[in-house]
Specification:
Layout: E1 5-10, E2 17-23, H1 25-33, H2 46-52, E3 57-61, H3 63-73, H4 77-87, E4 93-97, H5 110-122, E5 127-130, H6 141-150, E6 153-159, H7 168-181, E7 185-190, H8 197-211, E8 216-220, H9 225-237, H10 244-248
Parallel strand pairs: 2-3, 3-4, 4-5, 5-6, 6-7, 7-8
Antiparallel strand pairs: 1-2, 1-8
Helix pairs in contact: 5-6, 7-8, 8-9
């Protein structure tokens, strides 16, 4: 549970930091291991237990969930949000979107993106994690604005990859672009486990500095030991102001 999905906040542990976890059991975990085949009914016993565990948030819905729910499970993903939000009463549930592409790989009109944010909130979710696969922040403007307008806590993603272009300065610039859009937090999205301990040594401090007082998160799918070591190193470098007071204001009901 929550492997590679970590969140830091300044508090009362050694060095003045507390590391908060975002649980991924109900979304990314079975997406990676079971081709997203966990049904809503399978979550009934586990969801309340996760709610009591003290996670920062619980990951529930993303693009693959919408596709598989409709195509293979014959379920309504919106109903999943409503049902699970009834089981999880104390911990924010997360819906991840691909920015302007929402749950697909096509671009949608602004009014559809805005309506989606409204329905996400209406169905009991309070935490939104949009990202654009190419880090094109033009595709994040409407999703972030719409999410903030309806009251969703919004953590914007910056996708990590390897190339001569993707330097510390590049990622710091993208982080600042997200902050200008009004996000509540920024997360490093490393879906392929490419981030190494050596690369994290400079990347995390650069992005943390660009965040100012906003939280910096790490969300990844680590396939091997080097990725786990990189996660540990990133945790040690995640130092920022507490996010818990903001999460408590999300009006979970």
């Amino acid at each position: 549970m929550a492997t590679g999905t970590l969140m830091g906040s300044g508090d009362n542990t050694k060095g003045g930091r507390t590391i908060k976890l975002v649980d991924v059991t109900l979304r990314d975990a079975h997406q990676c291991l079971w081709a997203t085949r966990m049904t809503t009914a399978m979550m009934a016993d586990l969801a309340p237990r996760l709610d009591r565990a003290g996670f920062e948030a619980i990951d529930l819905v993303g693009g693959a969930v919408f596709d598989v729910c409709v195509r293979y499970l014959r379920e309504d993903p919106w109903e999943r949000m409503r049902v699970v939000s009834g089981w999880v009463k104390n911990t924010p549930l997360i819906v991840m979107t691909r920015g302007q592409s929402l749950f697909t790989f096509e671009f949608f009109p602004d009014d559809i993106v805005e309506l989606t944010a409204q329905r996400i909130f209406a169905n009991g979710v309070r935490y939104h994690t949009p990202y654009d696969a190419l880090n094109d922040m033009r595709n994040m403007e409407v999703p972030v604005r719409a999410a903030k307008k309806v009251g969703l806590y919004t953590a914007g993603g910056v996708v990590y990859t390897l190339s001569p272009v993707h330097t510390d300065a590049y990622y710091a610039c993208k982080t600042k672009d997200l902050i200008k859009l009004g996000v509540d937090a920024v997360f490093i999205k490393d879906p392929s486990g490419l981030l190494t301990p050596e690369r994290a040594q400079t990347l995390v401090p650069a992005m943390k500095a660009a965040c100012g007082g906003l939280p910096l998160q790490l969300r990844r799918t680590p396939p091997a030991l080097p990725s786990s070591l990189a996660s540990t190193l990133c945790i040690r470098r995640l130092q920022h102001s507490p996010t818990e007071p903001r999460i408590r204001q999300l009006n979970i009901s």
